[in-house]
Recover the amino acids of this structure.
């Protein structure tokens, strides 16, 4: 299954299928990072459940939470943890949410395929490049042996959970970043931007890199223990730090009482469907994490267990509330 299916045709197919048989509607929006997983799940689920109309968008994690809290969607995809302010915004509208980790990701720093110098970068170097007060404009300002060429920066927009996670991991505060970069909520545009400029650098989720590894080059990251490449294995073994992270879906509690929503979420977490996650390029968790996540859903546990989660923390312990 290709990560980049013909998106418009896929969505149109789902909507037409739903229009013909629709008894239940399941609108989903949010993270562009989680979008490929949810789209794959929705496509497969719709085959077995043609009476459920599913629409999947990717307006960004922040926008997804806004729509979830406004009651406009029933499930929000998120590549970051929900904030307390967002939980409060939902509560103000009488909405409680169920937090479910569904996969693991590695924020991947990428450069142009012809870039033969930036093979590995430290977190400190990324911080000096992306910090709000950064004055770095050329590669040799990072390392003197690198070219004296201007750096073209590409990154997710401010509604993206990837933007929030990266800025927090690299700059110490979510949202803290230099502003002279090209932003987009569409990761495919970021790929195209880096591909088009030999001096470009950008970042996005691992699956988009895996799908486009022939077009851009992944930079190894030194988080303090040497250079580590982003890979499924390094995500699963937690060696790729601090840029590895859990990915989530957040479900409206009242909507979870609807059989279509409940069936879809259980389908999402079913061990038999985990290949759909792997085929999009993301890492899957161990069975005990999914079992604990499903138990959390079945018990309709609301709120966030990940508000204080840090890179390297145990996802299993967080799900279990330890």
């Amino acid at each position: 299954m290709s990560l980049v299916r013909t998106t418009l045709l896929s969505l149109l197919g789902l909507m037409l299928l739903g229009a013909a048989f629709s008894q239940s509607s399941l609108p989903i929006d949010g993270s562009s990072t989680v979008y490929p997983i949810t789209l794959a799940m929705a496509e497969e689920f719709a085959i077995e459940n043609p009476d459920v109309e599913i629409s999947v968008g990717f307006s960004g994690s922040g926008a997804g939470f806004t729509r979830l809290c406004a009651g406009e969607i029933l499930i929000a995809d998120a590549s970051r943890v929900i904030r307390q302010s967002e939980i409060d915004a939902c509560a103000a509208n009488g909405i409680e949410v169920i937090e479910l980790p569904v996969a693991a990701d590695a924020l991947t720093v990428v450069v142009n395929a012809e870039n033969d110098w930036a093979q590995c970068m430290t977190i400190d170097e990324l911080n000096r490049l992306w910090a709000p007060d950064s004055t770095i404009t050329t590669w040799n300002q990072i390392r003197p042996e690198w070219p004296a060429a201007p750096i073209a920066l590409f990154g997710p927009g401010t509604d993206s959970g990837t933007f929030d996670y990266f800025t927090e991991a690299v700059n110490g505060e979510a949202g803290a970043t230099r502003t002279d970069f090209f932003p987009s909520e569409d990761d495919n545009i970021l790929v195209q931007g880096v591909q088009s400029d030999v001096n470009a650098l950008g970042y996005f989720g691992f699956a988009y890199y895996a799908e486009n590894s022939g077009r851009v080059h992944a930079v190894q990251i030194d988080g303090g223990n040497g250079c580590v490449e982003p890979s499924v294995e390094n995500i699963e073994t937690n060696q790729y730090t601090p840029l590895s992270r859990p990915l989530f879906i957040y479900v409206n509690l009242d909507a979870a009482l609807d059989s279509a929503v409940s069936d879809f979420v259980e389908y999402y977490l079913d061990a038999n469907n985990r290949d759909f996650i792997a085929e999009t390029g993301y890492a899957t968790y161990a069975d005990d994490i999914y079992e604990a996540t499903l138990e959390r859903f079945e018990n309709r546990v609301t709120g966030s267990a990940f508000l204080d989660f840090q890179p390297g923390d145990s996802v299993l312990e967080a799900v279990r509330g330890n």
In short: The chain is about 35% helix and 20% strand. The chain has two domains: 7-104+247-320, 108-236.
